[in-house]
Amino acid sequence: MNQAQHFLWRVEDKVGVITLNRPERKNPLTFESYAELRDLFLQLRQEEKIKAIVVTGAGGNFCSGGDVHEIIGPLTKMKLPQLLEFTRMTGDLIKAMRHCPQPVIAAVDGICAGAGALIALFSDLRYGAQDAKVAFLFTRVGLAGCDMGACAMLPRVIGQGRAAELLYSGRSFSADEGLAWGFFNRLASPPLPAAMAMAQLLAAGPTFAHAMTKKMLHQEWNVGLDEAIEMEAQAQALCMQTQDFQRAYQAFAAKQLPVFEGN
What average pLDDT does this structure show over 204-210? Predict the structure, then answer.
């Protein structure tokens, strides 16, 4: 994969690590970093050797959202076609995250706001530090809470009432609130080692099956129960054709732990 220009990218074993790296500004996003993140997640569809992704921020913060000077200021001077091009591009980042087959794990400490909160929200798992402060703060800059899919996903994660309060008020919530509500899967300070440990665990697992789980979690939003059951029957039948399924059975029969290879 190409070397990233607007954030840090490294691969540890089979885990790709994205580090948002403007710590002096709490890692805000720019037009360029939005686009490069979108392109990276699109590329990951073809990267069979990378089995899981961790997203984190440098310097004790996750991401403060769109850069006030480099994004917010220019947006106030744009016409509707340019504005729509930008908002669709930010949505394309989220869609690329959801459609890449690898599980994405967010390691969140410090400030996690605006678009940063959306990147965390649309990760498959979220590990938070005790000092994490998460805010969907769009109304505080005069915008609607319905940004980058927030109104679709946040109620599914924490419930409709809590999501409505956060999206209307723009207030931040604490790590303890996030854990109690199900936004965070777990708290760990710092969160990156815990996120990496989970990523390594997933990377060592049946990655074709993990990709299928991610696909079904996404696709079953908009179907009825009967359709979902049929989709899962077809998905599981495909997984039963994999070598990892055979390996698991053979290991079980031999009273050993399976060693998965992702095929």
Answer: 96
